[in-house]
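Last lecture ended with a question: if I hand you only a sequence, what can you say about the shape of the protein? Today we answer it with a concrete record. The protein is DEAD/DEAH box helicase. Below, first the input exactly as provided, then the predicted structure, then a couple of comments.
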Amino acid sequence: MPFKKLHSHIKEVLAHQEITTPTAFQSKSIPVIKSGSNLFCMAPTGSGKTTTLIVTTLQKLKCEAVGTAPRAVVLVENKEKALQLQEAFLDYTKHTSLRVYVGYEELHIDIQKSEIFEGIDILISTPKSMNQLFLLNGVSTSQLKLFSIDDADFLVQKSAYAAVISITQSIKKCQYVLYSEKMNPMIKRFESHFMEYSKKITVKNSQ
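The predicted structure:
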């Protein structure tokens, strides 16, 4: 079954990458994410979680730049993961007006603030760097539509977990989607914070 009801640009990129049929995980998760529900997505490596994250983010933003404040945030574990995800996003956004920005601890916070101020659509960041931006009023969440965490298993680290709690307390309203290999106790605790009324999708194999 091919990908359905996606923006024409996304379909073009998927076709160019010879991705014609969604994985079992993508078939289950993409319609639920498009519906606007908060969602825990649990599936093994190779299930298509990263492609799902990118595709649903672009779908939410209608593949076009709007305003100056980020409308999508993606949290990742570290600088290396942030830069990898940026590269993956750029494969999908290079023929659109969407602006993807990456922030991490090693990049001076004042540089991040000034560059974000110029206008971005998608912010990829580590929890610590994002929290620091929040504390310094370096990023607005007034237009935020989608907040995703990629490979959220790293949130067993207490400092990262605390940063996520702090960040989400400052966000009035948006959709949250967490991607992980499995549900661990730290991730489950988000249900009593920002993941209220969330749905869960679990896929056991990567096909």
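Comments.
1. Residues 8-202 form a domain with the Rossmann fold fold (CATH 3.40.50.300).
2. Residues 63 and 96 are 6 Å apart (CA to CA).
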